[in-house]
Write a structure and sequence with these properties.
- Strand 9 and strand 10 form a beta hairpin.
- The chain has one domain: Calycin beta-barrel core domain (Lipocalin, Beta Barrel).
- By secondary structure, it is an all-beta fold.
- Helix content is 0%, strand content 64%.
- It is globular and about 40 Å long.
- The chain contains no helices and 10 strands.
- It has a 10-stranded antiparallel barrel.
Length: 146
């Protein structure tokens, strides 16, 4: 199993960052919460909630990580915005990353880099069928009780 607590061990992670688009100078701040559930049937399920600053709607994603080995995994993302897309991921001591390719409308990747304090800095890019690229940068950390 992975050395990382994020994704691979049950818990709650919270984070924040910014979203930009290649077609607009606008920067949107966001806040996120990940609920990572126990492993079931050789898969880990995560519920991700994203709240966009100034936005009326929130984004809810469900991710399932399966076929997990010490250095790779499969991912399935279910989202109201994107539908269901599947991808592959890799793991090493400092990084968790995945990509979605060959999807009908959306391709993209996410990279989470472990920091010395246990937080993760992340970068993601998604391109939709209309060639609009969404760029996401932020930080996520384990929520502590209290």
């Amino acid at each position: 199993m992975s050395v990382h607590e994020f994704i691979f061990k049950p818990g709650v992670w919270v984070g924040e960052g910014r979203v930009t688009f290649n077609a607009s100078p606008e920067i949107i701040r966001f806040y996120t919460k990940w609920n990572i559930e126990k492993e079931k049937r050789n898969a880990i399920t995560c519920q991700q909630h994203v709240e966009l600053e100034g936005g009326e709607s929130n984004v809810f994603n469900k991710m399932t990580f399966s076929e997990i080995t010490p250095d790779a995994f499969l991912i399935e993302l279910k989202s109201e915005l994107l539908g269901t897309i599947k991808g592959k991921g890799v793991i090493d001591k400092k990084t968790i990353a995945w990509e979605f390719r060959d999807s009908s409308d959306v391709e993209g990747f996410e990279v989470y880099e472990l920091q010395d304090n246990g937080d993760f800095m992340f970068h993601a890019e998604y391109t939709s069928g209309d060639h609009i690229r969404t760029i996401i940068d932020g930080r996520i950390w384990k929520k502590t009780l209290g």
